Amino acid sequence: MGEKFLIENLFESKARIKILNILVKEKELNISSLINKTRLNHTNILRHLNFLKTRDLIQEKKFGRIRIFRYKNESIKARALENFIHIWED
Q: Which of 38, 53, 54, 84 is 20 to 30 A distant from 76 in Cα terms?
């Protein structure tokens, strides 16, 4: 990742926060389930998912035409963000 990533970039989008919150709870979902749960259109959700992948917060797995997006607990940033989300849920 050549460019410097600012935390503001992550939190500037309600859609990204919504996606992250859902993936923290569900751990992994296919694209259709994410679209249904977030009520975002396909193009927007893909744009946000690609952003989150480049920031090492989620991972995409492909099984033929099926695409699964999973919250990447191996990432220290993802674990820290998950803790943050859990704290703010209470």
A: 38
